[in-house]
Amino acid sequence: MKFRHVLLGAGLVMGASLPASAHDFWLSPAKYQISPAATVAVQFKVGHNDSAEDWNLRWDKVVALRNYTPDGVADLSASIIQKSDLLPGAAKTQSLEAGTYVIGLESYHSVSELSAEPFNNYVEEEGLTAIHDYRQQKGLTGTAGTELYSRKAKTIIQVGDKLTKNAVHPVGHTLEIIPESHPYDLGEKAALPVKVLFRGRPLEGALIKSSALKGANHKAQSVKTDSDGKATVSFDEKGPVKLSVVWGEPLSGNPRADFETYFSSLTFSVNN
């Protein structure tokens, strides 16, 4: 399955052919739990969990890369090392003292186009009800789908034993998964209540997917948010996990695309 990929950030336009699974995107810290007064390198992954590749990290693809600390917000843009033939692309935090840290990335928009059947399948699989209903109502299910999309990703790093409240606060991403209890203090049942916000408001009917990352064996699961944008995800193993959600809406009068779509992910490690 292929689609046309165009980068719009910083005025740069380039064509490429990538698998549709490349929409999956997450932040992968070298360690999710560390001792105080240490730095953490963060890599940027794209694809499926079992066949992840390094994202083509460049400064002109990044709107913002920030560290939401217990005491405020730190800009990590200057730490970006672009992807090259020799390096995978990464960023690095400042020295972190005890507490919880949320690293958040926002990308510039890109454009993708899929022919009718692959696009319909993608809309169904990701639970994009607004796009599905629009295409049904307008009789567009037999036509290709073009979307303007961007990526929003967070990872939560725990330093020492001090759990801080910033882990459960929104950072302001357009589409965002927010833990409602601290992910490094889940208790014996290892159940995490979460909320999905879209443009700052609870999003009903969003499909949250949970899957294990490298080094873990969590069972894959999917849950839909209720009218308050809430859902609960349970974990049966230890180790790193990724939560992801996609949402999109029809665009009006945009020459580049028919829909605008946001991809959001949250990674952390279950330590119970």
Notes on the structure:
The protein is mostly beta strands and 272 residues long. The protein has one domain. Helices cover 7% and strands 46% of the residues. Strands 1, 2, 4, 7, 8, 10, 11, 12, 16, 17, 19 and 20 form a 12-stranded mixed beta sheet that branches. Strands 3, 5, 6 and 9 form a 4-stranded antiparallel beta sheet that branches. Strands 13, 14, 15 and 18 form a 4-stranded antiparallel beta sheet that branches. A hairpin with an 8-residue loop joins strand 19 (239-250) and strand 20 (259-270). The radius of gyration is 18 Å and the shape is globular. The relative contact order is 0.17. The model is unreliable at 1-21 (pLDDT under 50).
